[in-house]
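Methods — Computational structure assignment.
A single polypeptide chain was analysed. Its primary sequence is given first, followed by the predicted tertiary structure written as structure tokens.
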Amino acid sequence: MKSNLSHHYLILFTLILTTVSQSYAQKLPDELLSWKGTWFTIQKQDTLFEQWNIDADGNMRGESWTIKANKDSIHSEYIRLYTKDQTVIYEPLVKAQHGNKPISFHMMLQTASYWIFYNEENDFPKFITYKRISKDQLKAIISNSDNPDSTNSIEFNYKLYPR
């Protein structure tokens, strides 16, 4: 009887510990979760898309692709946005780059509408910047400088795709 009671206490303790640890799980800021949706921009004659969804763990999953002027569709990357050790990580996986493994960029600056992710070891880009312009406008900039207005940057001015 005594060992049976101890077993019940162990199960109860494990359930409480699991519940408490899940309630303290690191979550992405609401401002990042507001990226949810499909975004598009037109560059030259191509249309670029970036689509963000929230997964069951409260992380963001994204993917990007391009529809060329000739209607060919080219998938660019998969992206994961999550927290680890109280740091927000932006992790793109680009086909045929880095041995088909994701690269981690750590958030180095965050405001209510501005996020900069950094990876010093990546050849290009070293910085990935997102700026929320309005409810339906999002700007993404990739560069090797912490100054997103520098000449060695590529800018994507996304609009929320109408449903």
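Note: Helices lie at 2-23, 30-33.
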